[in-house]
Amino acid sequence: MTAVAVEHLTKRYGHFAAVDDISFEVRGGQLVAVLGPNGAGKTTTLEMLEGFIAPTSGTVRVLGTDPYRGSRAWRARIGLVLQSTSLDAELTVRDTLSLFARLYPAPRPVREALELAGLTDDADARVGVLSGGQRRRVDLAVGIIGRPDVLFLDEPTTGLDPEARRRTWAGVENLTTTGTTVLLTTHYADEADHLADRVMVLSGGRITADTTPRELRARGGPATIRYPLPDRATPASLPATLAAHVDGDGRTLVIRTPDLTAPLRDLADWASQHCLDLSGLEVGPPSLEEAYLAAIGEPLTPEVSVHGR
Amino acid sequence: MADSASPAASRLPGAGILLAAQIRYQIRLLLSSGRAVAVGIGLPVILLVASKGSAKGSHPNVAGYAVFGVTITAWTSYGVRLVAAREAGVLKRWRATPLPRWCYFLGAITATALVAVMAGAVTVAAAVVFYGTHFDDGPGTRLTQSAALAILVALVVAAFAWAATATALTSVISTIDAAFPILILTYFPVIIVSGVLFTINEPHWLSTLATYLPAQPLIDAVIRAVQHRPGAPFLPARDMAVLASWAVGGLLAAVLLFRWEPHRPAQRRAARMGP
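Above: the input entities. Below: the C-alpha cells describing the complete assembly.
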C-alpha cells in the first residue's frame, strides 16, 4: 500500500523555489526521515503533505487524497507534530489528550497514548510547567491519539537535550510496532540513522539522496583507522603499506580503506615487533554525518540523485 | 491493543457533541487564565463598590459597569487570548484535526459570550447586594424578573457582537505584543463616547455616532429594562437591531478574515531567498 505519493512537487514563493520538482513514494508502515539543513524545504514539503499549503505545481496524495482538499474523515487518519509546540499551557496532559481524543472515531485510550509517549508520570501536570522535551512528547501523544495511519513529525527533537531526544526517539520507535507510517524531518544525521528505515536528503528544495541509512553511510567514504604514533616509534620503521598513510605532522597514522583487515594486521604485526602499545588506536565506521554533508554539498548529479520511484 | 476500526467506531463524532466540548474547553481556558475574571468581574465590581461612597444622593452607574464587564471580556480579554493562541500555533494544530473548522470558531465566540454575560450578571448581582433592586435613575425603576431576563437577552446579543467583531479584528493583528494596544485603542474610545463609565459632554454628531456602536445601545437596553412601564416592550427594538447587526456583521467579517496560521516570521523566507 502506498501511503504517500508525490510527483514533481514544486512550491514557489515569487521566483524562489522552496521545493523544486521532487518526487517520491512512501509505502505503508515505513519510517522515513527527511534530512536536510535549515531552509532545505523540509517543512514546506511537510506542510504540503499535511494540507496546510497548496503546491505551485505537481501532485501530492496522502492515503489517496489531495491533502489540501482533505475531508474530516481524511484528517481523522492523519497525525502530526508541528515544528514548535502548539498546545494550551493551562490544561493538564491528561485533559489535553482527552480533549483531542473526542475528535476521532476510534481514538487510542488516553492511558495508552501516555505510555507510548513516555508520559505516564506527567499525566496530571499542566502542559505549561513541563520541560521542552516533555512538551514535545505531549505533542507526539496528541499526534497519535487518533490512531493515525500516517504521522508527520516536523523536527520533533530540535532544541532538546540528549536525554530528552532519546526519550522522544523511544516514543517514535514504539509507534513503529503499531504499523503507523511515519515521515519525520530532522537536521540531525544521527536521528535519521537511529530511527529511519529510509533517509531522503533534501537540499535547496531538491532530493539529493534517497536511500537507507546504511547505504547513505557507505557514500560517506570508507572506514577510517586512526593511530597516534607513540613517541618512541619512528615513522621510518613502518612497513611500506602503512608508511604512505602517515599524515602531515608525521605523528599520526590515518588510513581510509574499504577493507580494514589487511592494514590492521600489518599494524598489529609492526606494533608487536617493536613492542608498542596500541591503546591510542581508533577504528571508525563511515560516518553518516560525512555522507550527509557530502549529499547536501554536492550539486545534483545523476549519481547522487536517487528518486524513490 | 484493541483495533476498533469497525464501521460504527469509524463514524466521526457528531457536530453537536464537538461544539459542546469546544464551548466547555474555551470557557475553561478563559476562566483558568484569571485575566478575564480579574478584568471582567473584578474591575466592574470594584468600580461599583468604590462609587457607593461617592454617590450620595445619586444612583450608581450599574448599567454602565455591567456593560463594561461584558464588553472588556468579549473584546480585550478574548482578543488577546485568540492572538496568543494563533501565534503559538494552537489554532493551526486545531485546524489539522477532524474538528469542523466552524466548530472551533463558533465554540470560541459562544464561550466568550457566555463568560462575558456571566461577568455582566455578577456586576448586576453585586449591585443588588449593595443597593437592593432599586438602583437606577428615575422613579419606579426596579429590577424585576422580567427586566432581568430582558437584560440577559440584551447582554447575550451584545457579547456575541463584541466577540464576533473581535474575532474578525484579531485576524489582522500579527503579534501578541501588538494585540493589547490595538484592542485597548479600539475599545476605550468606543466605551467613552458611549458613556459606559461616565457621562461626557460631547458634540451631537458624536452622540449620534455612539448610537450606532455596540455599547451605547446596550446601556440603553439595560436602562429601559429596569425602567420598564406596563405595556411597553421590554427591549428597545432599535437598540437590539443595532446590536444584532454588529453580531451578524462581526460574524461575517470573522468568517471572511479568520486566520488559522501564525503570521510567519519574515526571516524564515528571507533566509531561504539567498543570493
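Note for the figure: The interface with chain A takes residues 1, 4-5, 9-13, 17-18, 21, 25, 28-29, 32-33, 85, 88-90, 92-93, 95-100, 261, 269, 271-274 of chain B (CB under 8 Å).
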